[in-house]
Design a protein that fits this description.
This protein is of the alpha+beta class and 170 residues long. The protein has a domain at 75-169: 2-Layer Sandwich (Beta Polymerase, domain 2), CATH 3.30.460. The chain contains eight helices and four strands. The protein has helices spanning 10-16, 29-34, 40-45, 57-63, 75-96, 106-109, 131-141, 157-166; strands spanning 100-104, 119-124, 147-150, 168-169. Helix 5 (75-96) packs antiparallel against helix 7. The longest helix is centred in the middle third of the chain and has 22 residues, at 75-96.
């Protein structure tokens, strides 16, 4: 029966990896002249490398200066998005009986904008049987943006908290 790598002796292991067990050669004279031999005390003073987990928030910013500043919505794009959100809210109230409409997500707090940013709307008061018709009506009004229509009663608690804390009523 074949042995696993953990079961091999050192001599058996050398058969599989002969190059890893060659004795170290002395460097050529040219290399010896360029590389000074380090004194033993230099090894004692050596500090181990730090990982990302060891860095403070300020030290981390040196490596990724843009990460602590999330991109904001460009003003013209943001204004168009807000105008469309207000228009959608009006339709949801007038045609579908919405009692409350709230913008949440990146548009509400003006952070984390990207080309894929969308308009997130939380809506209260629309009857379940009219929900998909309402989505179609909003889709016909909002142009140039994707959107999400969310019923806060049916979403994850973390999203509901985000809506309540960061949302802006329209």
């Amino acid at each position: 029966m074949a042995k696993t790598a953990l079961e091999l002796t050192r001599e058996e292991w050398k058969q599989y990896h002969p190059g890893r067990h060659r004795p170290a050669t002395t460097p050529s004279p040219e290399v010896s002249e360029r590389v000074p031999e380090s004194p033993p005390q230099a090894l004692e003073q050596h500090q181990p490398a730090r990982t990302a987990a060891d860095l403070t928030r300020e030290e981390w910013k040196q490596y990724h200066p843009g990460w602590h500043r999330p991109p904001t919505w460009p003003p013209d794009v943001r204004e168009r998005a807000w105008a469309q959100a207000r228009r959608a809210a009006q339709i949801l109230r007038d045609q579908f009986g919405a009692t409350r409409v709230v913008v949440f997500g990146s548009l509400a707090h003006n952070l984390w904008y990207s080309e894929q940013s969308d308009i997130d709307l939380a809506v209260w008061g629309i009857k379940p049987e009219k929900y998909f018709t309402a989505i179609g009506a909003v889709e016909g009004v909002i142009s140039g943006f994707e959107f999400n229509l969310v019923d806060p009663q049916d979403c994850f608690p973390s999203i509901r908290e985000s809506i309540e804390e960061e949302g802006v009523a329209v």
